[in-house]
Write a structure and sequence with these properties.
elongated, single chain, 2 helices, two-stranded antiparallel sheet, 100 residues, 5 strands, alpha+beta
Amino acid sequence: PNTTYVVIPQNMRCPLTKKVMVDPVMTKYGHNYERTAIIKWIGMRGKVCPMTGKPLSFAGLVTNSKLEWQIAQWERKIKNGNVALQLPEDNKLEVMVILQ
């Protein structure tokens, strides 16, 4: 099969899993995480935000519908072959492999 490499935009990657988010939630501090990953984090590490170290509870998580929509649009462009490869602002190239 053909292999395509696509840069994953930083804002679409969960800081905990490093994968594209499927069900993104935003904390009250404005950071986005994959819902299952942050729930697991809170359960295992205590009720603190991984990015800020400040208190965080399950009640402080809100579905980020806008980011979920942006990810869906981005994935649709990939499937249609309409994504240009570009280096992220931090110059760290992280890729996702898509087998077609």
